[in-house]
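ugh ok fine here u go
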Amino acid sequence: MIRLGLPKGRMASDSDKFCDALGVTTRPGVLNYQAIAEGLELSVFLLKAPDVAWLLRRNVLDLGLTGDEWLMETGADLDCRCFEVRSYTASVCLLMAEYDARPQRSIRSVVTPYPTLARRLMSSIAPKAEITAVRGSTEALVPGIADACIDVVETGTSAALNSLTIRECFDQVTTHLVRSEASNPDMVRPIVGLLAETLGLVR
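structure:
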């Protein structure tokens, strides 16, 4: 049985494409499906993108679609990425209030959905800064709650609307189909190939 995690939310359209390729017809509210594709039994789980990354890291899933930022947050092996899906493209950025002219080394507090990644990124900038994990958007919390935030920025529109400016860009991120470190590459290869074909990639 191959266990495949597909994200809901902003990546749902790519998940739907993959489900169609696997012969899975999704129904509202149903989050787990059984299928047979390429002669292999599959269990398909519809999850949040962060949970896909965490479950891949723990080898609970064999394959999953998730964002690079979540792979970096969980410490997953990036060499296990199978192919790029590009549900979105963005940058991991440090943002501060537009009027805040302090040097980055003066940052005392950072809010972020990616605390592990943020600690690594801030270690050479402001190593004593307090990192606070939050879920969802961070823009509302700067500067009232924290001096800065580390988040994924696509267009920068939300940051501008909240009077924030990008002080530093770190990693470029997008989305990938990923296998877990413990999965057998030969076993999952037929499914990886089938899903790649849905994006026009050569098997």
